[in-house]
């Protein structure tokens, strides 16, 4: 029982340095943008001058966060 089946042996790939850098920079940056967008929409503060409704900030933050999560291994 200690051996994995043949089809599962190659699935556990190792994390490269590039994946680690992208994961640990894009994920917090995306979450920060989402938090800024939610905070701005809730309080009415305009943090990003070209996005007064804060929807663009939240969408871009989610895209950046998901791009970072794609490098999770």
List key phrases describing it.
73 residues, mainly alpha, 2 helices, membrane
3D architecture notes:
58% of the residues lie in helices and 0% in strands. With 73 residues, the chain is mainly alpha-helical. Keywords: Membrane, Transmembrane, Transmembrane helix.
Supply the helix-strand structural class: mainly alpha
Q: Give the topology string: H per helix, E per strand.
A: HH
Q: Domains counted in the coordinates: how many?
A: 1
Q: What helical percentage do the residues reach?
A: 55-70%
Termini gap: 25 Å
Report strand %.
under 5%
The radius of gyration is 18 Å
Query: How would you describe the shape?
Result: elongated
> How many strands, what sense, and barrel or not for the largest sheet?
none
What topology emerges from the helices and strands here?
Blueprint: H1 17-43, H2 55-69
Short description:
With 73 residues, the protein is an all-alpha fold. It contains two helices and no strands. 58% of the residues lie in helices and 0% in strands.
């Amino acid at each position: 029982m200690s051996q994995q089946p043949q089809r599962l042996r190659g699935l556990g790939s190792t994390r490269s340095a590039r994946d680690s850098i992208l994961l640990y920079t894009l994920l917090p940056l995306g979450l920060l943008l989402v938090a800024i967008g939610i905070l701005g929409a809730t309080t009415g503060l305009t943090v990003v001058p070209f996005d007064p409704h804060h929807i663009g900030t939240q969408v871009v933050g989610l895209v950046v966060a998901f791009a970072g999560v794609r490098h999770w291994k």
